[in-house]
């Protein structure tokens, strides 16, 4: 049986009540580099996004899930994007908003749950992640969960006044 519930956290669909969290996350300039955001989002736009977040992954080609603890505290988001059912692959991204919640195993548990879900329920063959060479915590997380470094995109991102390489990681379901 597929479960999106772990020992300390669970993954769930976004709800209208998540607007304030989403607003804080999408407008936090510290995470813009990861999300490639260039300008703030209004609550109006985010309400529209939430209103359409119910769409099936086969229609929307993406899936965004909330990472929540069992006290219903929203801690972060995990995304599937570029979903391709023909080739049975998708990209994955994850963010835990508050620094106090990072390096506590939340990301590892969330990503583990998502991997199990996509390989056993969506029947995907592979997941991939694009990670800035500067993002050591994400490199560590994905590597520890069996993602392999398969390539480098040179000077892919311009951030903090310099170009940075992006590393492509891939996990194949054998």
TrEMBL record:
GO terms for molecular function: acyltransferase activity, transferring groups other than amino-acyl groups. It comes from the Bacteria. PROSITE patterns: GNAT. Signal peptide: none annotated. Pfam families: Acetyltransf_3 (PF13302). Keywords: Transferase. Residues 9-165 form the N-acetyltransferase domain. InterPro entries: Acyl_CoA_acyltransferase, GNAT_dom. PANTHER family: GNAT-FAMILY ACETYLTRANSFERASE, SPERMIDINE N(1)-ACETYLTRANSFERASE. This is N-acetyltransferase GCN5.
């Amino acid at each position: 049986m597929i479960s999106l519930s772990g020992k300390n956290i669970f993954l769930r669909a976004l709800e209208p009540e998540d607007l304030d969290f989403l607003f804080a996350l999408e407008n936090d300039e510290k995470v813009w580099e990861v999300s490639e955001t260039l300008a703030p989002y209004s609550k109006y736009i985010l309400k529209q996004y939430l209103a359409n977040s119910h769409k099936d992954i086969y229609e929307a080609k993406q899936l965004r899930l909330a990472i929540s603890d069992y006290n219903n505290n929203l801690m972060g988001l995990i995304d599937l994007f570029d979903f391709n059912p023909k080739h049975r692959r998708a990209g994955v991204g994850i963010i835990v908003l508050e620094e106090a919640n990072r390096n506590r195993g939340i990301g590892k548990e969330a990503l583990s749950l998502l991997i199990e879900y996509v390989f056993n329920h969506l029947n995907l063959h592979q997941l991939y992640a694009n990670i800035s060479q500067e993002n050591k915590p994400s490199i560590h997380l994905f590597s520890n969960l069996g993602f392999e470094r398969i390539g480098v995109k040179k000077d892919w991102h311009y951030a903090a006044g310099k170009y940075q390489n992006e590393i492509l990681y891939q996990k194949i379901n054998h």
